[in-house]
């Protein structure tokens, strides 16, 4: 991850929360993540907290690497703007267009193998809205990736989410007033 890209995102989104996280992975997951990242020459990842008008949040259940419920999104390809990548991933995986996209968090993530090998990854977390109350059926990309997409009210968010996504979601929902701060 280039420091220039990180600084450009900070300038573009000065109100974004800056965080850092270390993410230990199993050896196979570490190697798969590293291969995915470096083979695509990815700039990082773009995920998001997407709300509908009823106050529900869109989540994706992944079946491959990092299986479990997560915030939807994906890889930012070389030369791609982070917000463009986020919109593209959501259209491909969920089949909806987004309104009011805003970067709310920039996370410097360090993936760590059991052997102590590491690589850095920049994760952009966006907030956005969709006009749909219900989600369309699964897209071809969602089916190909083994994704299940669903809507959840804040009180019904799955307790087990992957890669720190529940903490990101809980933080956002608490500051937006959609979740009881005592949770």
Automatic annotation (TrEMBL):
It comes from Rhizobium viscosum. Its cofactor is Mg(2+). It holds the Pfam family NUDIX. Residues 40-174 form the Nudix hydrolase domain. This is ADP-ribose pyrophosphatase YjhB (NUDIX family). The lineage of its organism: Bacteria, Pseudomonadati, Pseudomonadota, Alphaproteobacteria, Hyphomicrobiales. Belongs to the Nudix hydrolase family. Signal peptide: none annotated. Keywords: Hydrolase. The keyword Hydrolase applies. CDD domains: NUDIX_Hydrolase.
């Amino acid at each position: 991850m280039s420091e220039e890209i990180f600084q450009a995102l900070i300038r573009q989104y000065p109100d974004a929360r800056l965080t850092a996280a270390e993410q230990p992975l199993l050896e196979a997951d570490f190697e798969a993540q590293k291969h995915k990242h470096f083979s695509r020459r990815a700039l990082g990842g773009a995920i998001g907290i997407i709300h509908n008008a009823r106050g529900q949040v869109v989540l994706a259940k992944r079946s491959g690497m990092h299986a479990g419920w997560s915030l939807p999104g994906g890889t930012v390809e070389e030369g791609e703007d982070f917000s463009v990548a986020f919109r593209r991933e959501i259209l491909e995986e969920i089949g909806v267009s987004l309104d009011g996209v805003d970067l709310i968090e920039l996370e410097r993530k360090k993936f760590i193998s059991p052997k102590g090998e590491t690589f850095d990854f920049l994760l952009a977390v966006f907030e956005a809205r969709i006009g749909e109350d219900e989600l369309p059926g699964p897209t071809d990309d969602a089916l190909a990736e083994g994704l299940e997409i669903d809507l959840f009210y804040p009180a019904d968010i799955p307790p087990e989410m992957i890669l720190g996504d529940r903490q990101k979601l809980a933080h956002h929902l608490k500051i937006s007033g959609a979740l009881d701060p005592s949770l």
